[in-house]
From TrEMBL, chains A, B, C, D:
Residues 136-280 form the GFO/IDH/MocA-like oxidoreductase domain. Residues 1-116 form the Gfo/Idh/MocA-like oxidoreductase N-terminal domain. SUPFAM superfamilies: Glyceraldehyde-3-phosphate dehydrogenase-like, C-terminal domain, NAD(P)-binding Rossmann-fold domains. This is Gfo/Idh/MocA family oxidoreductase. Transmembrane segments: none annotated. Signal peptide: none annotated. Keywords: Oxidoreductase. PANTHER family: BCDNA.GH03377 (PTHR43818:SF11).
Amino acid sequence: MIGYAFMGAVHSQAWRTVGHAFDLPVDVRLAAIGGRDSVAVKAAADRHGWAAFETDWRTLIARDDVAVVDICTPGDTHASIAIEALAAGKHVICEKPLANSVAEASMMADAAASAAARGVRSMVAFNYRRVPALAYARSLVASGRLGTLHHVRAAYQQDWLVDPAAPLTWRMQKERAGSGALGDIAAHIVDAAQFVVGDLLSGVSGMLETFVHSRPLSGGSGLSAASGGSGVGDVTVDDAAVFFGRFAGGGIATFEATRFATGRKNAMQLEIYGSGGGIRFDFERMNELQFFDGSLPDSENGFRRVLVTEGDHPYLEAWWPPGHPLGYEHTFTHEFRDFLLDVSSGQDPSPSFADGLQVQKVLAAVSQSAESGSGWVEV
Amino acid sequence: MIGYAFMGAVHSQAWRTVGHAFDLPVDVRLAAIGGRDSVAVKAAADRHGWAAFETDWRTLIARDDVAVVDICTPGDTHASIAIEALAAGKHVICEKPLANSVAEASMMADAAASAAARGVRSMVAFNYRRVPALAYARSLVASGRLGTLHHVRAAYQQDWLVDPAAPLTWRMQKERAGSGALGDIAAHIVDAAQFVVGDLLSGVSGMLETFVHSRPLSGGSGLSAASGGSGVGDVTVDDAAVFFGRFAGGGIATFEATRFATGRKNAMQLEIYGSGGGIRFDFERMNELQFFDGSLPDSENGFRRVLVTEGDHPYLEAWWPPGHPLGYEHTFTHEFRDFLLDVSSGQDPSPSFADGLQVQKVLAAVSQSAESGSGWVEV
Amino acid sequence: MIGYAFMGAVHSQAWRTVGHAFDLPVDVRLAAIGGRDSVAVKAAADRHGWAAFETDWRTLIARDDVAVVDICTPGDTHASIAIEALAAGKHVICEKPLANSVAEASMMADAAASAAARGVRSMVAFNYRRVPALAYARSLVASGRLGTLHHVRAAYQQDWLVDPAAPLTWRMQKERAGSGALGDIAAHIVDAAQFVVGDLLSGVSGMLETFVHSRPLSGGSGLSAASGGSGVGDVTVDDAAVFFGRFAGGGIATFEATRFATGRKNAMQLEIYGSGGGIRFDFERMNELQFFDGSLPDSENGFRRVLVTEGDHPYLEAWWPPGHPLGYEHTFTHEFRDFLLDVSSGQDPSPSFADGLQVQKVLAAVSQSAESGSGWVEV
Amino acid sequence: MIGYAFMGAVHSQAWRTVGHAFDLPVDVRLAAIGGRDSVAVKAAADRHGWAAFETDWRTLIARDDVAVVDICTPGDTHASIAIEALAAGKHVICEKPLANSVAEASMMADAAASAAARGVRSMVAFNYRRVPALAYARSLVASGRLGTLHHVRAAYQQDWLVDPAAPLTWRMQKERAGSGALGDIAAHIVDAAQFVVGDLLSGVSGMLETFVHSRPLSGGSGLSAASGGSGVGDVTVDDAAVFFGRFAGGGIATFEATRFATGRKNAMQLEIYGSGGGIRFDFERMNELQFFDGSLPDSENGFRRVLVTEGDHPYLEAWWPPGHPLGYEHTFTHEFRDFLLDVSSGQDPSPSFADGLQVQKVLAAVSQSAESGSGWVEV
């Protein structure tokens, strides 16, 4: 695993857990963690239970005891690490967004395709697909319970940047992060919407907004610090992105991603309405799916709160009795389970780098629309 | 009052009630109700407590015992009735949307302005402004509790047209209704958003969608029937409208209005986020306002469910003790109270016909954007 | 109608409305309102639309233009007014609790039975039975959807007495009100539970509590003032009542009624669980019923929020389209509708004075249990 | 650790995690797991990551590499294992209820006290104290935010026994489990209520109920199987327990624990109302605390949904950014953290065996009351 900040911590917890929670055909060993700062990465290795650490990701990739490379670094480094790791015959999981540009993502998808031909597998870590409630929502849609799609209404609302004194980090710098709310969180709702619906967006119209244009530099170092030292630095990405679009097979969608929704902490929300029913989800209540089954009589009908903690819900065979909530970290535990099962059985995991590229194209279309008067842009 | 369908019934209930609930400087008498079908309008007069009825709206306007004309007819008749009533010196309340076109709305606003100069008053019936929770939300924003505006997220979701066998009515015919979800319900959330925020939209980008293009004709008559007899008729308006925009003073907004959100009945929703806090509202729970006060410590903070039923909440001095819900009809009772108080004191009621015209311009801009590849259109 | 405080206002609104909302075989006229304070009762008559007023309830009963007597006074006056009105051949609606003692309630029930034999009808005003959601809940239970009853969990939580400086009123004086939370609000949940379940409590065990033993006297007059002038007066009733019981046909129940649940305004709550499903209700969201239908597959099941605003829900034919909330006042509008239809068709309305007596017996059993170490008391 | 069923699995996950999530002065090693069935316990050891296994708990206790004994077996075995382990100088964590009788619990408390004098520590595993939302609720109450206590309303609702065909397990046999819902889940809400309030119950009045008196025997073996082979067996414990009580320092409380609340899965609920505010909690939404702060102005007040996921909430320094939910398992992770910190620093962990004994006395008082006509029983 490369990267040891927030994503590094939660990935570690999932790697430690996956082999105990699920029956897997392989043993999971936390071989080595990589990072540039030797003191910090050593501390992370100790804390998170990794057997070794490396300060050069190339060395880490080259290790014999490493079979899977899990990339948790900022987006500007994804392409080079992933391509090299695949070339070295290592299976790769890469955090989203796949890359900071369509061009990079495209190279990565090409690399993944040629690696797959050699039996080397890859996956982009859109972990929300592995929220049991969303995996279950996908199964409801796939089985036709929602009928013909009419509407998707998606939002990802956070508020951690409302305070203009919040310091600049790499997530607010275009050269590191590629974009702001767009690539960081809109990417999740685009992927989740397409995943649950089972169709792809064919075009979009969008608008980006930066509310706070400069922020204090924290002066810190390490992965989460911004480049540029102390003082004040420019925010060069969007604070919020809003857009609407159409699905190839019909149905329209709206998206809103923001770090300025005061009071919302991690409200990744998805509503889907079809001719046969409706679905509503909010990650702040990740164990619940609101489901309206249009086939019931009107007088007794309503959205029902399905607690997605039953034994026959997706991934729930590993966990606790009904009504005992699961937490965020297990979106990754489930992701790694699926990845390891696919790798073991010689299948390509999903979402693939090609799927990541397609999301990247949607985001690029939003940016292009936003830069040209919000006019329609085909994906 | 002219018109006796759904709006006629609820307006009647409010007219019967307003004088008993509030201290008013005038007596309220339900003088006469108008409609073209004499049998139906007589029945409506009896049922709803009107002293007389007329089958010709011009005769109704001319009556000496009519001081206020309340227009509840489809949008294509608003302009002629309102302009003639104002000319006759009658105060006018007109249902929304003000008219089916900017041109008509503009004539009405001109007529209203010149009538006001003669002491004749007018109001467009955006009744959601008189939901106590939204009036209270306006007071919170006006007092600065939300700080600088960042986001509005508005939706008006209904599902009464999801069934393709639902019959065609005048509300689905462009020549009668002007537009579909756009004029009928998007109008409400545009007005409500602008009202609560206290600012106007300066530009929009939008998309319209018709999911079901033809519907059975019911063969009925009367105001709610579609023109055209029996068989199948064309739906010539939008089933859904989505758009985003910017406020003149800063802040961005998204809007979604649909009659195809399966499971949502009358979910007129408004979220507002500013630098100081957030507000969330859903008309299906009309007595509640979710309020996040950003000035409290993070660890104990959260959206609080304010039951807007306290004695010092807007309009609540007329009603019941805390915790006893109010119903939809009183949005009109409150509207008529405000109208009568303003008329009595010689003030122009709000929202004025000019306000109705401005909303009409926003809707026209959405239509224009939708017809031209969703590009940005200034309001 | 006798009494013109809170209950007088809301009853008046319902009497004014019922004939316009529903098809009734009789005309409703607000003939006369009674109260002891001539200035106040005249003002109430004007405000609420009553044609006349009387300061002596015996005179009011004697009027030829009065066919129905609606008793909204404190409980200590119910028996004498109701018995005299029935004797005079007037139909009677009496607010709950029916009386302040079982003895009085028993006399009233006897009087009602003998009046019924002469075609004179009576009803006790447990208005929560006419909340559409609870009437609908009753129909679900009656049709067997909940199966065998296991649990009732009921609560009525208010907080208007938490402040020890809240003044003493007649509602806190035993000689006027009979009891406190027990008779005022526990009465409602006992009746509602028995109504929805369709069975009667056979025994109870209970505890009463008074948190604040003396309160300032407001020094006011009129119906809501306490007896005793200014200064400080003793609270001689319970602030809260908790008890559990058994239903005759099986199933156990818990009840909690309090005026000290800080933050709850009028939270009249009912949960019912049977072998076939569950129901949850909170009057603060009076238009919603949470329904769990146990016959659906576990994986897709959950409580569904039924918006009880569909045209085929109880009483809803009179009102608005789906999703448009009703308010508290219409629990009385519905009650009067049912009363008038029964009177017109020569049927005994429900709940009868005998039903009111049975609730009184339950409350008396709770008091008796509370006074004797919470031991079990048969009803 | 002794025991490897549901509790064994979740305890294992917490033991594997605690050292990685928190800074601890000790290393955590999963030394050995105990169980009587050698095949099953070996499988559990492999699955859950234990280095060794034992089929005799005495052997396990005697191992040199075991410093802490974690008892996850049915209640009838707690006393002998715990007392022997303490005597052997091992620190002990024991699942709740502490024992199946007050007598056993009393012996255990005595053993714990004498062990503590030798520096050997013990704790009873009321894990709900370590739900961050409840730990935070405790801090709010402790700091006086709720003022004087008036009401506790607690319930623990499950529905896994509603189906009469659900098989008999040891949890429904008095000789193994001691009691049913009373000891299994009422124990949790008694402890949680006393913990959050910071006071003890001084007396109770209660009622127990068994709805289904015999159930099919599954014929299985192992810890979760019932004794008795195949066929049908008697349910000898309560399916539901309801009771009310008083706190020593004032304030009244109601409790309801049931396995028959159809539709509720693991709804451990707690409401607390004091003179200064109110708190509401439902474990099905374990990351949320509803808090009403009575010091705010009425017009803007309401219960606020605190997402207990901020960095300064109890235990949250170990986890993810705000808005990312935690799951059930970490109630144990937190418990083990606190236990290990206390053991390391030579302090007695809380809740102690004495605390477990006190809860046992409350449960015994409820049983005694239920057997004697629900009369009041002092604790």
